[in-house]
């Protein structure tokens, strides 16, 4: 089972159930049957601070991914911690699905390039 924890600190109404369903659908299609993932919806200011701190770029962004276990082999009985996704609704607007898919694929170990683009196209 894929457990998704959602926290909305953005101050903007978001489709939390839709985001959870999208994450679960993408993970299932990628062969992930169980694990835990967090989604935080944040303000542009928080998005900017996180991107500056972790990527050295001083700008708000659509989504960030913070992987933990990815698809690495884990000891038996240890729950898979896929990681966290941070999404800025004010940056993504109505086009929130593609950035979430992109961030989920980063959690699974995909990097920018052809493989990522191929996987994104499957989940569009």
Characterization of this structure:
The protein has 124 residues and is an alpha/beta fold. The chain is built from 5 helices and 4 strands; from the N terminus they run βαβαββααα. It has helices at 16-29, 44-55, 89-92, 97-107, 114-123, and strands at 2-8, 35-41, 63-67, 81-87. The chain has a 4-stranded mixed sheet, sandwiched between helices. The mean pLDDT is 88.
Strand order of the largest sheet: 1-2-4-3
Structural class: alpha/beta
How many helices in DSSP terms? 5
Question: First CA to last CA: what distance?
Answer: 23 Å
Spans of at least 5 consecutive residues whose pLDDT stays below 50 are: none
Molecular shape? globular
Give helix and strand order, one letter per element, not per position.
Answer: EHEHEEHHH
User: Helix coverage percent of residues?
Assistant: 40-55%
Q: Over the alpha carbons, how many angstroms does the gyration radius reach? A: 14 Å
Number of strands: 4
Percentage of residues in strands: 15-25%
Largest sheet: 4 strands, mixed
Mean residue pLDDT: 88
């Amino acid at each position: 089972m894929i457990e998704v924890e959602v926290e909305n600190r953005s101050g903007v109404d978001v489709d939390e159930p839709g985001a959870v369903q999208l994450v679960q659908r993408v993970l299932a299609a990628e062969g992930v049957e169980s694990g835990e993932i967090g989604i935080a919806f944040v303000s542009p200011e928080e998005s900017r601070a996180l991107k500056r701190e972790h990527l050295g770029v001083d700008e708000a962004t659509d989504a960030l991914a913070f992987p933990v276990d990815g698809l690495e082999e884990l000891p038996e009985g240890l729950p898979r911690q896929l990681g966290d996704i941070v999404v800025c609704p004010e940056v993504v607007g109505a086009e929130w699905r593609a950035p979430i898919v992109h961030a989920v694929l980063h959690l699974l170990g995909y990097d920018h390039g052809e493989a990522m683009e191929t996987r994104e196209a499957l989940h569009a």
